[in-house]
């Protein structure tokens, strides 16, 4: 099979999807960029990986990739988690593009559950895998209703939910997939990133969100205003573990907690593995770095 | 010193090699051929074709072999392959009235023109394990008779002639295709039927069963069930007329349902419709029941709040490939989100403990 963008050694078209399908996805992407935060329905295809495992992100990446791109995939912030490996391999095989683990070298980064720590640039695209694109879904299960609520900008239900959290727990009890309002109009689910990442949603790169099973695409164009929902007396709090990274000493990154023995011993490490490795290469050390621990 | 787990890539490769070995099983036992699966596990093949939305017994058999007999996994393989196939055009609507029936029964009449034909069915067998099948050998030859020629009339049409059953609106509109357009609600009947015919057999069965047990009861009879081959014709633009390009086996079910009449319509019977690839009659009957339940609005019935009456509920959850993918994705690492939950729960507990201490001190 041949294609318009470049030859591949694979039996499938460049980046798996046929050109007509990619055009359909690109049209949805253009609409999404034109209406920030609005969920655009698209005719999601059945992909050779399961729904819920990144089919939306994969389709968006496939529609954006060109043979000159350098591709990076992270899951939980790490390049070597199993599903990130699987998706990276998929595009190595079907698109034959360069891949990298270095955030600054990538032109397209597909992610699940994290935004890289290093600031992204105008030359980069960040593609999110989204399980449930509808921020109102758990308040109202019906699509017919939630579409109406978005159309009427009727977001009272969401504020009531957040208020009830505070009344019950003293805090807003949402720690990831924390809802945001985009450019003062649409309430949007930023995908299940920890709320620590929410402030980074205002960035220089284009952010594209793909939900395959739910057949929705949405976007945040560069430098778009993104506000995490909160109250004046309960301002948004992008919290993280109260510790520095035990490998690179960073105190400004999102941390994974790793259990290291049966006695409840723990260590904290950067969830963004590339960022952590970069800092260690620059000589930063943490409590349990090999030299420090000796 | 703990070393963060690396090597996802090697683990994946090794897991897949092991999987291939397990798939083959004990190598002292002869390997199954795709042809054996196609011929001897044909009802599994039929289910994979129906829910995979691709009529190709050889590919379905291959998928079953590759999936180690896990039919949902096999359906997934077929669906993923199907997406890559170019869409050449649309066939003409098949005429099931011209079906060469292997099986054709009606529960609403003792006998019907064209006759009752039991065909190769499990019905009326006693479900006793047949240990004779453990030994290999040919089954006794079945009796044969002359094939019936000519059209087989539809049972529901006999009722329609007397105006006793509601007639269906005819339309030449090109039906929508959920594999090429995003689902939007309300979906309408053509899209509902497409979703049901490729929906999970177990789900559609349970939805249908729930209507029989009282959740949106509409009292169905099998007006007619027929299984057999029909010709598929396609209009070839270069020729200017339709030619036969092959044939497919279909199971078709029309139910006759009670209908007491409404404010606007006199009492008459109503229909539910099921049509599925292959010999898949459980699915075809289930589909007809669910179709009928979903027609409450169009027929002026009350919404009783039954799950099977809820179009969005039924259609959004009938696809087993969507369901299994999303269900199983919770196996993927979620430790970043879990970490943020952990922080939140700790914080709430800390605040509560501090508040309790303060109260005790006062």
Question: In short, what is this structure?
Answer:
The complex is a heterodimer of chains A (294) and B (362). Chain A is α/β, with parallel strands linked by helices.
Could you characterize what this model shows?
Chain A is an alpha/beta fold. Chain A has two domains: 19-135 and 180-228, Rossmann fold; 240-285, no CATH class. In chain A, 26% of the residues lie in helices and 17% in strands. Chain A contains seven helices and twelve strands. In chain A, strands 1-9-8-5-4-2-3 form a seven-stranded mixed sheet. In chain A, helix 1 packs across helix 2 (55-64). The longest helix of chain A is centred in the first third of the chain and has 16 residues, at 19-34. Mean pLDDT of chain A is 93; it is low at 1-8. Chain B has 362 residues and is an alpha+beta fold. Among the domains of chain B are: 30-86; 96-121 and 150-169 and 177-324, no CATH class. Helix content of chain B is 40%, strand content 13%. In chain B, helix 2 (34-40) crosses helix 4 (57-66), helix 4 (57-66) crosses helix 5 and helix 7 (189-197) packs antiparallel against helix 9. The model of chain B is unreliable at 1-5 (pLDDT under 50). Chains A and B meet through helix 3 and strand 11 of A and helix 1, helix 5, helix 11 and helix 12 of B. Chain B: Keywords: Lyase. Chain B: One of its GO terms (biological process) is organic phosphonate metabolic process.
Show the helix and strand layout.
The complex is a heterodimer of chains A (294) and B (362).
Chain A lengths: L18 H16 L5 E2 L13 H10 L5 E6 L6 H13 L3 E2 L8 E5 L12 E5 L13 H9 L4 H14 L10 E3 L3 E3 L17 E6 L4 E5 L5 E3 L26 E5 L6 E5 L2 H9 L8 H4 L1
Parallel strand pairs in A: 2-3, 2-4, 4-5, 5-8
Antiparallel strand pairs in A: 1-9, 6-7, 6-10, 8-9, 11-12
Chain B lengths: L7 H17 L9 H7 L1 H11 L4 H10 L4 H13 L16 E6 L49 H7 L27 H9 L3 H12 L7 E17 L4 E17 L12 E8 L3 H14 L16 H7 L2 H9 L6 H27 L1
Antiparallel strand pairs in B: 1-2, 2-3, 3-4
Pfam family, one (chain A): PhnJ
Protein name (chain A): Alpha-D-ribose 1-methylphosphonate 5-phosphate C-P lyase
InterPro entries (chain A): PhnJ (IPR010306)
């Amino acid at each position: 099979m041949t294609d318009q963008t470049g030859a591949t050694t694979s039996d499938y078209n460049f980046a798996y999807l046929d050109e007509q399908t990619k055009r359909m996805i690109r049209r949805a992407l253009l609409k999404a960029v034109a209406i920030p935060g609005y969920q655009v329905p698209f005719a999601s295809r059945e992909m050779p990986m399961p729904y819920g495992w990144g089919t939306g992100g994969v389709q968006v990446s496939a529609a954006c990739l060109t043979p000159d791109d350098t591709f990076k995939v992270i899951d939980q912030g790490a390049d070597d988690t199993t599903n990130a490996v699987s998706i990276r391999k998929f595009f190595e095989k079907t698109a034959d593009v360069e891949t990298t683990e270095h955030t600054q070298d990538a032109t397209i980064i597909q992610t699940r559950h994290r935004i890289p720590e290093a600031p992204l640039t105008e030359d980069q695209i960040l593609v999110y895998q989204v399980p449930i694109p509808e921020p109102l879904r758990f308040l109202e299960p019906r699509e017919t209703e939630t579409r109406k609520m978005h159309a009427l900008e009727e977001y009272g239900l969401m504020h009531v939910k957040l208020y009830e959290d505070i009344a019950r727990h003293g805090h807003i009890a949402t720690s990831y997939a924390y809802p945001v309002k985009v450019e003062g109009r649409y309430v949007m689910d930023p995908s299940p990133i920890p709320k620590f990442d929410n402030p980074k949603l205002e960035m220089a790169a284009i952010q594209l969100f793909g939900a395959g099973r739910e057949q929705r695409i949405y976007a945040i164009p560069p430098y778009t205003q993104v506000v995490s929902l909160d109250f004046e007396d309960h301002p948004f709090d992008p919290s993280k573990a109260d510790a520095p990274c035990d490998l690179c000493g960073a105190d400004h990154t999102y941390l994974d907690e790793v259990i290291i023995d049966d006695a409840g011993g723990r260590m904290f490490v950067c969830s963004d593995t590339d960022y952590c490795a970069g800092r260690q290469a620059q000589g930063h050390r943490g409590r349990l770095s090999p030299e420090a621990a000796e | 010193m703990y070393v963060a787990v690396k090597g996802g890539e090697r683990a994946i490769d090794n897991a897949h090699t092991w999987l291939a070995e397990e798939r083959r099983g004990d190598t002292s036992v002869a390997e199954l051929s795709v042809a054996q699966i196609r011929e001897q596990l044909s009802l599994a093949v039929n289910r994979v074709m129906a829910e995979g939305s691709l009529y190709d017994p050889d590919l379905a058999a291959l998928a079953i072999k590759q999936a180690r007999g896990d039919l949902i996994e096999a359906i997934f393989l077929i669906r993923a392959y199907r997406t890559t196939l170019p869409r050449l055009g649309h066939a003409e609507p098949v005429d099931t009235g011209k079906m060469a029936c292997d099986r054709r029964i009606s529960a609403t009449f003792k006998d019907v023109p064209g006759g009752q034909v039991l065909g190769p069915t499990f019905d009326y067998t006693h479900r006793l394990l047949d240990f004779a099948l453990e030994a290999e050998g040919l089954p006794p030859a079945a009796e044969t008779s002359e094939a019936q020629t000519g059209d087989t009339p539809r049972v529901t049409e006999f009722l329609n002639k007397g105006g006793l059953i509601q007639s269906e609106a005819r339309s030449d509109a090109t039906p929508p295709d959920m594999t090429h357009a995003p689902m939007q609600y309300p979906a309408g009947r053509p899209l509902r039927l497409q979703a049901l015919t490729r929906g999970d057999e177990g789900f559609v069965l349970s939805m249908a069963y729930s209507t029989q047990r009282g959740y949106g009861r509409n009292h169905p009879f099998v007006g007619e069930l027929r299984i057999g081959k029909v010709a598929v014709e396609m209009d070839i633009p270069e020729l200017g007329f339709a030619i036969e390009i092959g044939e497919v086996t279909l199971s078709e079910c029309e139910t006759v349902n009670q209908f007491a009449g409404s404010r606007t319509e006199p009492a008459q019977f109503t229909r539910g419709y099921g049509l599925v690839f292959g010999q898949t009659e459980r699915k075809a009957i289930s589909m007809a029941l669910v179709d009928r339940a979903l027609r409450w609005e169009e027929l002026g019935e009350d919404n009783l709040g039954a799950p099977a009456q809820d179009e969005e509920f039924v259609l959004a959850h009938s696809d087993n490939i969507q369901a299994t993918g999303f269900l199983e994705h919770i196996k993927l690492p979620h430790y970043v989100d879990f970490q943020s939950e952990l922080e939140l729960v700790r914080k709430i507990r800390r605040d509560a403990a501090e508040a309790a201490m303060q109260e005790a001190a006062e």
